[in-house]
Amino acid sequence: MSAEQVTVYSRPGCPFCMSLRAGLQRSGLEFTEVDIWQDPEAAGVVRSIADGNETVPTVVIGDWKAVNPSTREVVAAVTEHAPHLLPA
């Protein structure tokens, strides 16, 4: 089954989140960003992926999940799991 979106879990002031956001924007890849400080359910998702920690950025693309991935890793995951989401 193909993923429907790229979800980036983040929090304000996180330099790693800012770096990933900038890289994804440069790549042209569309993504949905969720602030875990504003969304307790999203914080729970991150804890379930990051061994109980609220480590961000955490990225989910369908069944693929990663904590603090690089832009290159995210684009590679989209290429493999959701190529229809790649920019034209």
From TrEMBL:
Q: Name one Pfam family in it.
A: Glutaredoxin
User: Which PROSITE patterns does this one have?
Assistant: GLUTAREDOXIN_2 (PS51354)
Biological process (GO) annotations?
Answer: cell redox homeostasis
Domain Glutaredoxin, first and last residues per copy:
6-63
Q: Name one GO molecular function term.
A: electron transfer activity
Q: Which domain of life is it from?
A: Bacteria
The record's annotation in InterPro entries points to:
Glutaredoxin, Glutaredoxin_subgr, Grx-like_ET, Thioredoxin-like_sf
Question: This protein is called what?
Answer: NrdH-redoxin
Give the source species.
Saccharopolyspora terrae
